[in-house]
Specification:
The chain has 256 residues and is α/β, with parallel strands linked by helices. The chain has helices spanning 14-21, 23-30, 57-61, 66-80, 95-106, 168-178, 237-245, and strands at residues 3-7, 33-35, 88-93, 113-117, 133-139, 186-190, 193-197, 206-211.
């Protein structure tokens, strides 16, 4: 069976990621396994973060080896469940989306595709040794991870190390190069949805969605906390991500 790993945002936890994304119900209908790992923090199950390099909080400040953690988690899940090692996918929101970028860069031999949501790259990411398909979703009203790039905003700007993020399109450009795609993506606009799609070699894909009416949230999901941006109904991120994932698999999987 395929495996989808869903990474919570900074200050969240596994339960929050499950409730927000709705991936559990979709996994039951579609026949895949979904895992919601917890990041780390000073408390066991609250205010947890991932070390995505320049973000965020406890995990970044303490240089937690989250790449190593996810590598070991994959080993354990493959051992204990009927998983297909060629169909392992990672998605996440905000800090979790940044971590998805890092995992795609540093564990390309394990991961077939990633789908960061309201995340960003910083410009110093490691070029992956193997292609990894990528789909990105960003809200153009996002004040925490601004789609135009720049310094962090939102409720916890001090959780970052101060490195400004690159514009949302830089994510697609990074993965376009990694997947040896053509330089100029095709653009389509439908209402509040702007969709860029690269022309890539067979088996690889890079896509970016920008939502003109959406902020820092999981589009089409449930709000992660009181006072958070409205997820709206412009795009069902969970459905779009799974439709993307299910079409991709690793052609070869080296031994862990």
């Amino acid at each position: 069976m395929p495996l989808v790993i869903v990474l919570h945002g900074g200050g969240g936890n596994a339960a929050n990621a499950e409730s927000m994304s709705g991936f559990t119900a979709l996994a039951a209908r579609e026949g895949f396994i979904v895992a919601y790992p917890d990041g780390s923090g000073r408390m066991r199950d609250r205010l947890l973060t991932w070390n995505a390099g320049h973000c965020c909080g406890y995990a970044m400040q303490n240089r937690v080896d989250d790449v190593g953690f996810i590598r070991m988690l994959l080993d354990r899940l493959i051992r204990d469940y009927p998983l297909d090692p060629q169909r392992i996918y990672v998605t996440g929101i905000s800090n979790g989306g940044m971590m998805a970028h890092r995992l795609g860069s540093e564990l390309p031999q394990r991961i077939a595709a990633i789908a960061p949501v309201v995340a960003a790259v910083f410009g110093d990411e490691k070029q992956p040794a193997l292609p990894v398909s990528a789909l990105m979703i960003n809200g153009m009203l996002d004040r925490s991870v601004p789609y135009r790039g720049g310094p962090p905003g939102g409720r916890f700007p001090d959780a970052w190390d101060g490195t400004p993020v690159k514009p949302a399109m830089a994510q697609a450009e990074f993965w376009g190069r990694a997947n040896r795609c053509d330089g100029q993506p095709a653009r389509e606009e439908r209402g509040a949805v702007q969709h860029w799609r690269y022309r890539c070699p067979a088996g690889q894909a890079v896509e970016l969605y920008l939502l003109t009416d959406t902020g820092h949230t999981w589009p089409g999901g449930r709000s992660g906390r009181r006072g958070a941006d409205d997820p709206g109904s412009t795009l069902d991120a969970t459905a779009v991500i799974w439709a993307f994932f299910r079409t991709h698999k690793r052609t070869a999987v080296p031994a862990p």
